[in-house]
Prior knowledge:
This is Phosphoribosylpyrophosphate synthetase. It comes from Flavobacterium noncentrifugens. By secondary structure, this protein is an alpha/beta fold. The chain has one domain. 19% of the residues lie in helices and 39% in strands. The chain has two helices and seven strands, in the order H-E-E-E-E-E-E-H-E. A seven-stranded mixed β-sheet has the order 3-2-1-6-5-4-7. The two termini are 17 Å apart.
Amino acid sequence: MDSLITVLDALETKGFTTQFEVSHLKLLSLKTEKRFAPDQVKIIHFYRFEGESNPDDGAILYAIETNTYEKGTLVDGYGPTSDSTKADFMKQVANIQK
Length: 98
């Protein structure tokens, strides 16, 4: 499996250039500072990574497109290292492709 950095680089070449965070129950674009509700977001693809030496060091990478066609990524821990705010937001996103 490719590394997180390798997949991030590949997604960037496909136009996923924005970094997203979750703040105040919305997805926040760190590029444009726009905020998006779960129904304004599509998960185009997601990738799960396991830690090489410790499976608890896992991560999940989401490739996201918003209703304004802004494309970018969101990274979260996976399993016990997951950020509950991010995980709760992503659970509300109904439009998941893969």
